């Protein structure tokens, strides 16, 4: 029986630019996915690739990143709209409308059923306090839910349930790819797992560190319990991970765009030079 190849796309806001370089290197090496699972920005990138896993698709997605996503413009309204939204909601900074309009305008297909490759994404259900995996129907709302990072965005309501960012429950969903039968898994992460955690020194650092522990926990546990016979490759970003916890790209667009080329070169080296072996 042929191996089932899984691509796992982790969350990380504009750091998800790294996914583009990894995708390109994998496809150039003749490695194509049979199943894709994604969280947060990995849900958008993953659905886009699943629409047709070709270099032409990566070209189109990379154009979106270089022109819009890396700047954060696909997520943020103007300053005045942001202030109005905070005043009205008291729970979140940004409306999901800007990103919803972006998804509607640019995602090549609108439903899971139209995708060429099996795809799933995850969000965190508030009412059930657990992961909810989306596998069928319209793509837009599950992607919005998977990207609804608090307190930036309001929870996204689907079937009467409120959902926050999938990173709260499964930031790098390796376990789901294994459950779906993938025997060779390529983990397209955004750099966090390459960078060791440090003890926080201020209040902002405490908030970031606690959230980051929650984000990494499921992945490290899944990695430790990979079944025999499953091969896992955690791809490198090639980036200097100073400031790795950055979520939005305001004021650092060039750095975010540079991550595409850095990840491409690092993943090429991994695949062709036998850099670190599979986990």
Name its key features.
279 residues; alpha/beta; eight-stranded mixed beta sheet; globular
Structure commentary:
Helix 9 (203-224) links the parallel strand 7 (184-188) and strand 8. The model is unreliable at 82-87 and 242-249 (pLDDT under 50). It is built from ten helices and eight strands. The chain has helices at 17-28, 41-50, 55-67, 79-89, 97-106, 140-146, 167-170, 174-179, 203-224, 253-272, and strands at residues 5-9, 35-39, 118-125, 130-134, 156-158, 161-164, 184-188, 231-234. Strands 1, 2, 3, 4, 5, 6, 7 and 8 form an eight-stranded mixed beta sheet that branches. With 279 residues, it is an alpha/beta fold. Helix 1 (17-28) runs antiparallel to helix 3 (55-67) and helix 5 packs across helix 6. Helices cover 41% and strands 14% of the residues.
In short:
The protein has 279 residues and is α/β, with parallel strands linked by helices.
């Amino acid at each position: 029986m042929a191996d089932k190849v899984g691509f796992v796309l982790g969350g990380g806001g504009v750091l998800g630019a790294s996914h583009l370089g990894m995708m390109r290197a994998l496809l150039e090496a003749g490695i194509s996915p049979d199943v894709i699972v994604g969280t947060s920005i990995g849900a958008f990138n993953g659905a886009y690739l699943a629409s047709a896993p070709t270099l032409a698709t990566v070209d189109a997605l990379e154009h979106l990143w270089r022109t819009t996503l890396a700047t954060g413009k696909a997520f943020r309204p103007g300053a005045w709209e942001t202030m109005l939204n905070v005043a009205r909601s008291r729970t979140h900074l940004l409306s999901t409308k800007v990103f919803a309009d972006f998804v509607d305008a640019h995602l090549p297909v609108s439903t899971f059923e139209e995708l060429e490759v099996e795809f799933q994404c995850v969000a965190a259900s508030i009412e059930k306090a657990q992961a909810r995996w989306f596998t069928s129907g319209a793509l837009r709302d599950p992607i919005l839910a998977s990207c609804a990072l608090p307190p930036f965005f309001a929870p996204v309501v689907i079937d009467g349930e409120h959902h926050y960012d999938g990173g709260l429950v499964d930031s790098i969903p390796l376990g789901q790819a294994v459950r779906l039968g993938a025997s060779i898994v390529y983990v397209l992460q955004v750099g966090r797992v390459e960078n060791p955690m440090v003890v926080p020194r201020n209040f902002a650092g405490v908030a970031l560190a606690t959230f980051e522990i929650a984000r990494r926990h499921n992945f490290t546990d899944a990695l430790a319990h990979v079944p025999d016979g499953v091969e896992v490759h955690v791809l490198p970003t090639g980036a200097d991970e100073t400031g790795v916890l950055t979520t939005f790209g305001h004021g650092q667009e060039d750095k975010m765009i540079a991550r595409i080329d850095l990840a491409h070169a690092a993943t090429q080296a991994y695949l062709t030079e036998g850099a670190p072996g599979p986990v």
